[in-house]
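How a chain folds remains the central question behind the approach discussed here. No coordinates are needed to read the tokens, only the vocabulary itself. For completeness, the protein is quoted in full, as a sequence line and a line of structure tokens:
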Amino acid sequence: MPAGEWVNLYSATSISVGTKIVIQNTGSRNVILVDSVTKPTASTGFNVITPKEYLVSSNAPDGAWAKSSGGSKLQVEESEL
């Protein structure tokens, strides 16, 4: 993912909005995650996912956005949990 830009995880992966997802940070920098329908306008109300860690979204997220100040890599999959 590009440095300093919000990425819509559902659009980037073609996973249907509302599907529970697992997000793993496979990069080397922290990534912030926000559940939001629209692109976030601030960096508040977020979760931080450190390198090699993962996060499972809420049961029916209405949107999921990610951002990393230095860029990073994420693996995003539909959750079976």
